[in-house]
Amino acid sequence: MKTLVAYMSQTGNTKKVAEAIYNAIPEPKEIQRVEEVTSLEGYDLSFLGFPTHGYGPDKQAKNFLETHTKDRSIALFITHMAPDGSPPVLEWIQKFRDAATGANVVGVFECQGQVNSPLLKFVMSINPNPKMRESLRTGKGQPDVERLKRAGVFANEIMSILKH
What is the pLDDT along the chain (164 residues), one digit of tens a residue? Predict the structure, then answer.
């Protein structure tokens, strides 16, 4: 099974998760930045990773998902600023799924990433929710070793499902 791991990353969070997934899956495999990918043809499975921007995919991520994933088997991995599994995250992930029109989405991995300092200061200044403010503070150093291990486990589970 030929597998692609492609990712978008501005701060390095999504790249770390991409590398953890890549290291967990067997050959033949490739890893690339999304910007380098012209087609998903030739891959049996593509792990596609994106950070959230504005509570979902940014324009470039949405365009990539809309134009490249139809009739393809994909697994998404998403990084964000909220605590893992929180209700808003599920809404954000759904926006990525919706953009992957016609794709066979075989799984989704999500984890908190560290928010860059200027964005963190801005969000902290406008967000009155104390729980969200605390989660942003505790996001420092994310994704941590445990989250990266979980990304590898996710990759192995997806590969096992598709082999059967």
Answer: 999 999 999 889 999 999 999 999 999 999 999 999 999 999 999 999 999 988 899 999 999 999 999 999 999 999 987 777 788 899 999 999 999 999 999 999 999 887 665 555 555 556 666 665 555 555 566 799 999 999 999 999 999 988 86
Bridge-based pairing state of the strands 104-112 and 3-7: unpaired
**Architecture in CATH for domain 3-114+142-163:** 3-Layer(aba) Sandwich (3.40)
Query: Residue 35, CB half-sphere, CA atoms under 13 Å: how many?
Result: 4
E strands present in 17-141: 29-33, 45-51, 73-80, 104-112
Joined tokens for residue 54: 């504005």
**113, HSE (Cβ side, Cα atoms, 13 Å):** 26
Give the predicted TM-score (pTM) of the model: 0.87
Strand partners, 30: 4
SS3 (DSSP) at 16: helix
For residue 102, the 8-state DSSP code is T
